[in-house]
Amino acid sequence: MASPSIVSASGQSDWVEQALLAELRATAPQGVNASITLIAQDGAGRVGGLHGATSYGWLLIKTLWIDPAHRRRGLGRRLLDHAFAEARRRGCHSAWLDTSNPAAARFYQALGFEPFGHLANTPTQSPPGHCRWFLWRPLP
Q: 94 with 52: CB under 8 angstroms?
């Protein structure tokens, strides 16, 4: 059998994730493995959104973004509340995420997320001083 070739395949991450999930479903007990995507919009268009996924009883918040003009109005909290409700409906008990934005880390901690780890660059690594925080919380 010839050795498989390796090629760059931009836009194919869904295929890799689906192949892994199919194998996991066949070999281990599962929760609901599915995406959650929520969009916040006003009369002028989209102003924020959340993308995440549920798996093994956990909600992973992959992305949460609010247009700067709409920040500090409770929209991020509302998006999280909707994601939490859907995750609970799917049988999840907790949520986790990671962020490299210090303001976002403070936002999540104010909403009950607790740090469980971090990765930090040294002053000689690029970019110097970069840090990524990992946070979790039980679902309300």
A: no
Between the CA of residue 128 and those of 38, 60, 103, 124, what are the distances in Å? 34, 27, 18, 6
Per the CB < 8 A criterion, the answer to whether 83 and 38 are in contact is: yes
Tokens of 79: 């998006």
DSSP 43: T
Judged by DSSP in three states, 40 sits in: strand
φ/ψ region of 56 (left if φ > 0, alpha if ψ in -120 to 50, else beta) reads left
Q: Which of 28, 97, 89 is nearest to 56 (CA)?
A: 28
pLDDT digits (tens, 9 = 90+) for 29-63: 777 788 999 999 998 899 999 999 999 899 999 99
| Signed CA dihedral, 72, 77, 82, 86: sign only | positive
pTM metric for this prediction: 0.84
